[in-house]
Design goal:
Layout: E1 2-4, E2 8-10, H1 14-22, H2 27-30, E3 35-42, E4 45-50, E5 56-64, E6 68-73, E7 80-90, E8 93-102, H3 106-128
Antiparallel strand pairs: 1-8, 2-8, 3-4, 4-5, 5-6, 6-7, 7-8
Length: 130
Amino acid sequence: MKLNSKKVTVQKSAAELCDFLTDVKNFETLMPESISKFEVLGQKSFVFALKGMPEIALEVKEVERPNKVVLGAISDKIPFSLTANIQEVSENTSTVELHFEGEFNMMMAMMVKGPISKFIDTLASNLEQI
């Protein structure tokens, strides 16, 4: 299953935005209001939970500074990745689009598609505000 967020403009350079997304504690500020847990596990990993959903542990898997940050699930039970593709627009402005890719059976994909779409759109919208 592949999902994309809307492309948003952020008032940061591509390098600043890449650094922001590489620092996992910053994801707490991007989370939806329905968050029930957020905990930094290490320098490159964190766990979060939204109300009514199971906990999800993510870690920074790859960084191609300043254009790409890839987060991936720590657990192999539900393998997925969340990629931020960053493009510099000017010295102080960049755009970012989030790409979610996961391997789910058809039944699971039907159940999670809506909530995941809403989640990545919320992350993207909150990135506009930083």
